[in-house]
Amino acid sequence: MMKIVYLDVDGILLDFNSYIISLYEEKYNYKFPKGYLPGSWGMTDCIPGKEIAHWKDMVPEDWPSLLKSLPGARDFIEKLRDIEGVHIILVTALNQKKQIYRIKNLRELDIYYDEIFFTGYKQSKANLIEELNDRFIDRYSVEKIIFVDDKLYNCVDVLNKFEFYPKCKLFKVYSIDMPYNDKEIENSILKANNKFKVLPNYNELFETILKDLN
Ligand SMILES: [Mg+2]
């Protein structure tokens, strides 16, 4: 029996957010309140009175090799790997030139997984997930599928695809409470779809997934 876990990387396993925040603090000599996260990653109005650059124009070429893991992420992956039948697939949006840095970063952080797939920025992850699901479902007996992403639109896309073929015993989509997700849309999906859940913090997110798979 196979259990597939699709995990996003930025914002689920690696701390993209605090890396970008510290970059802004250094460049603009500004201190954000503790725990600050912007409402959007354009960062256009996050430092009062200052015209600021987009993060993509500020980061070095090898930025995906410089991230730290989120608290509990490595431990979570290790626990996942101990569960029989679990297949860990990372699905991350990154352009081709930077993919090698991401792989290097994950290796240096001792985060081990079975496979990694890349999509382009703003490209839906749902088509890829559907292809992979079909591949696995054709060849193995897939009992459970879980998809995890911090961006609401990725969760919505995957939920929409799955309406048509939930062939396995358990299918869940999880996200985490983030200011850059639209609360109204989030609440309406939560009401409409019992396969979707937004967890308040990483600890609860990781515990929930482990409970589902054990
Ligand atoms: Mg993400």
Report how far the terminal alpha carbons are from each other.
12 Å
Task: Bin the strand percentage.
Answer: 15-25%
What is the CATH level 1 assignment of the largest domain? Alpha Beta
Strand order of the largest sheet: 3-2-1-4-5-6
The major pleated sheet works out as:
6 strands, parallel
SS field, number of helical segments: 7
Mean pLDDT: 91
Bound molecules: magnesium ion
Structural class: alpha/beta
CATH architecture of the largest domain: 3-Layer(aba) Sandwich
Helix content: 25-40%
Principal-axis shape = globular
Total beta strand runs: 6
- As residue ranges, the low-confidence spans are none
Total domains, how many? 2
Q: What is the CA-atom radius of gyration, in angstroms?
A: 18 Å
Task: Using the coordinates shown, work out and report the CATH topology of the largest domain.
Answer: Rossmann fold
H/E order of the elements?
EHHEHEHEHEHEH
CATH superfamily of the largest domain: HAD superfamily/HAD-like
Q: Which key phrases capture this entry?
A:
37% helix; Rossmann fold; globular; alpha/beta; 214 residues; 6 strands; 2 domains; binds magnesium ion
Describe the overall structure.
By secondary structure, this protein is an alpha/beta fold. The protein is built from seven helices and six strands, in the order E-H-H-E-H-E-H-E-H-E-H-E-H. Helix 6 links the parallel strand 5 and strand 6. Magnesium ion binds next to loops.
